[in-house]
Amino acid sequence: MTEFHDQDLGGSRFERVNLADSHFTRVRFTGAEMRATDFTDVRIDGAMFHGARLRGVELAGVRIDGDLRDVVVNGVDIAPLVEAELDRRMPDRVRMRPDDAEGFREAWSILERLWEETVARAKMFPEADLHRSVDGEWSFVETLRHLGFATAAWVGRGVLGESSPWHPWDLPWDQAPGWEGIPWDRRVRPPLDEVLALRAERQAMVRGVLASLTDARLAEEVTRTEPGWPRLEGFPLKTCLRIVLNEEWEHRRFAERDLSILEGGSGAD
């Protein structure tokens, strides 16, 4: 098997080349052109398709999970249609886009209630199952660890100004570039109860911020230029909080999906 590491292959031409079962990690295809290409059974995680054009394609049995904006299929922008259908299926989803302080408090209350139900469901499984990956995705425990990271980043650092709010179990997203001083260990398997205890602390941190939140404070901007992540300059405080709401909502949806797969006894790695 040929391996390519840290090489610039820009401008290369591949014709009648078999790349079946190949793995591409942190590879740039910006501006690439692909014709008569077979993507059957391809799996793509953490990719950007900004400005992509797909013409004369066949899409069948395709599953897409991601942020859709200006996605035009056969002349129809499907992104608003998808958003409207998701809102119809899950009415509380609309409340995850608040504009005032009271709306943020309401949204967080909904999330805590929903997550309490999800955690209760998860506790019905053997703990070993909660460390199992489903279809290559994060395990239930890893999901909780990632939410801890997101909360620490956008509330602990972004809103409260803590330069290094991390816990050793915090888990960045898989495609993150990595930063000095920020933990990132997907191999560790902490006990569920201890992860839940840490999560309760982080939830209380958000609850405390929202309890004293005012509309005037919500309209402020934050700047965090010290080493670490995220680095922000004139960044809307409202957006920091909205990111946390979105992370909590979407990852609960993924967790519920994967628990259902575990219940069916298939799809786990």
Automatic annotation (TrEMBL):
| SUPFAM superfamilies named among the record's database cross-references | DinB/YfiT-like putative metalloenzymes (SSF109854), Pentapeptide repeat-like (SSF141571)
Indicate the segments forming the DinB-like domain, all copies.
Answer: 111-254
**Highest taxon, organism lineage:** Bacteria
Supply the InterPro entries for this chain.
Answer: 5peptide_repeat (IPR001646), DinB-like (IPR024775), DinB/YfiT-like (IPR034660)
**Gene3D superfamilies noted in UniProt:** dinb family like domain, E3 ubiquitin-protein ligase SopA
Q: Name one Pfam family in it.
A: DinB_2
What protein name applies here?
A: Pentapeptide repeat protein
